[in-house]
Amino acid sequence: MNHLSSDLLRTFLAVAETGSVTDGAAQIYRSQSAASLQIRKLEDMLGQPVFDRHGRGVVLTEAGERLLPVARDVTRKLDATMRDLTSDDLHGKLRLGIPDDQSKGTLSRIIGEFAQSHPLVDLEVTCAMSAGFPDALASGTLDLAIYEVAHPQPGLDVLRQEQTCWMMSRHHDLLARDPIPVALFDRECWWRDAALETLHTMERPFRTVYSSQSVAGVAAAIEAGVAIGLLGETSLTRDLKRLGPKDGFGEMPISRLVLGLNPNADSPSIQAMRIAIHKSFGQ
Prior knowledge:
- The chain is α/β, with parallel strands linked by helices.
- The chain has three domains: 6-86, Winged helix-like DNA-binding domain superfamily/Winged helix DNA-binding domain (Arc Repressor Mutant, subunit A, Orthogonal Bundle); 92-150 and 261-280, 3-Layer(aba) Sandwich (D-Maltodextrin-Binding Protein, domain 2), CATH 3.40.190; 161-252, D-Maltodextrin-Binding Protein, domain 2.
- The chain has nine helices and eleven strands.
- It has helices at residues 6-18, 21-27, 32-46, 62-86, 103-115, 133-139, 190-202, 215-223, 268-280, and strands at residues 51-54, 57-60, 92-99, 121-128, 144-149, 157-169, 180-185, 206-212, 228-232, 240-243, 254-261.
- The strands form two sheets. Strands 3, 4, 5, 6, 7, 8, 9, 10 and 11 form a nine-stranded mixed β-sheet that branches. A two-stranded antiparallel ribbon has the order 1-2.
- Strand 1 and strand 2 form a beta hairpin.
- Helix 1 (6-18) crosses helix 2.
- The radius of gyration is 23 Å and the shape is flat.
């Protein structure tokens, strides 16, 4: 006899709530193909489809509508039971800083990992440009913070690294313009400094035509063909062109995403959050 597993129900819920197999898979950190296989397995067990497919995604069938409240109830009870059985007595407030461009996906993983085992700890999260996080740690206004540096200081945990690079829209030859239009971060940070250093070294006239405090803002200007800009290589899309030595741009620094701690604070909750952050980054 077949039995419905909570794993299948969680995949079903993620797809139902997002209306897309691809988006649902991302929500539960699975590949699109893995999520599709689980939905197919669920439908094979039930002997009928739970989704109708259409060009823009999926919608629930009648069977899917009947299954939805049951899946929500089962997974909610299982999560509550897990919290009751595995939670500890850690309590108090924890202040965490996360870069605004990392906050959505990263924050959900961290909270999911931490809150299940430590439900009595109150989280105060700051999502902002990370340039000010080291000072906030030093002054004691943050307990932990995730931020980007070119050269990590001793004692910092490196969570991830990526190459930075100049990029430009494939559909706009901005290098032919004089001066070159440039998009920069509008606050002091080492990414802005690195970009300006490169531009001055090239000895070509440039003009800052766009500024933003967020990665999304700078990326939007580049994709729109308004300006060239310096971002991490993970921001490259098929509509963007990477600029290199043949375009007059030298090798750019590696950006390292690090975890820093308040040097004057140490508690079990801080160490627990440190572990949760490492787990959320697959470490």
